[in-house]
């Protein structure tokens, strides 16, 4: 299944039903007076977070949504039936923005959470409301209220406790395969991983945490180079970052410390708050060197970086050091603060970022209104 993490859709609530103009007509009651009922309210539009969804791909095939209109009132003071509310299922972790005002409307981070995005129009009054001592036979009635309409931007950010950060071919996918049941593709060429993957790491019967593998980043990622900001945002919900470093790059001229500094600068450029998130150093591919040489290289890297935080030497291929890393993460997570709330500010870009992005213009709305 293709992973879609950002779409634009258009939603509209239902219009309110019109009030009725009616007069009571019964045998022996020739002047029964007005008895027109009110119209029913229009249906509301809700977004509902569902656990069984993990992508926004369904919105590629349907991008316009409308709740049911309210029904008109009738005689005998009968109120029209209210329109049915429309519930649109989205994955847990979806941020909802108003496309026009760029306002963050809600963060659906819990399964079953509901967000009202469009309120239906209220029903109009029937002529019964206009009866008075000087207006015994009113023929006035109220039209149904207009419905709210909105252009929305849905943005899915993965919910994970731990995020993997590193250059292409640093071994992120191999590591997530080694510590969890996730099976992302692994190959010896850059950008093997093209979409995020989640893996559940089991520490015991009731203890576990979720780890996220995102595509590799390159210098210039904060400006959109490579896969750029499209996947950097998925790290914003994580509580701990693991910065993977290849201790033995295939090109002898590449310096692991220089690679680390370059990616660290990109992270700071993208989000200073994210750069301050707890981050551990994980030096990978210890199997490419002899044990003593790997330990020596590991100490040199930590010394050159002047690294003061937790650091681990691992081999994702052989599993060396992975169990220690996992256990340390399990002990540290309860002490770490929760992920911060999403910012009101968002990079909207210069246009649609994928073929799933779409928004209706005014002519589309008019055509839709005529069709409804």
Order of helices and strands: EEEEEEEEEHEEHEHHEHEHH
Shape: rod-shaped
- Proportion of β residues? 15-25%
CATH architecture of the largest domain: 3-Layer(aba) Sandwich
Proportion in helices: 10-25%
Largest sheet: 6 strands, mixed
| CATH class identity of the largest domain | Alpha Beta
Number of helices: 7
Distance between the termini: 33 Å
- Rg from Cα: 29 Å
The helix/strand class is alpha/beta
Q: What is the CATH topology assignment of the largest domain?
A: Rossmann fold
Overall mean pLDDT: 82
Number of domains: 2
**Uncertain ranges:** 224-228, 344-365, 368-372
Strand order of the largest sheet: 10-11-9-12-13-14
CATH level-4 homologous superfamily of the largest domain: P-loop containing nucleotide triphosphate hydrolases
If you had to describe this structure to a student in words, what would you say it looks like?
The chain is α/β, with parallel strands linked by helices and 372 residues long. It has 2 domains: 6-157 and 356-371, GTP1/OBG domain (Spo0b-associated Gtp-binding Protein, Chain: A); 162-335, P-loop containing nucleotide triphosphate hydrolases (Rossmann fold), CATH 3.40.50.300. It is built from 7 helices and 14 strands. The strands form 3 sheets. Strands 10-11-9-12-13-14 form a 6-stranded mixed beta sheet, sandwiched between helices. It has a 5-stranded mixed beta sheet with strand order 3-1-8-5-6, with no helix packed on it. A 3-stranded mixed beta sheet has the order 4-2-7, with no helix packed on it. A hairpin with a 5-residue loop joins strand 10 (197-202) and strand 11. The longest helix has 15 residues, at 256-270. Mean pLDDT is 82; it is low at 224-228, 344-365 and 368-372.
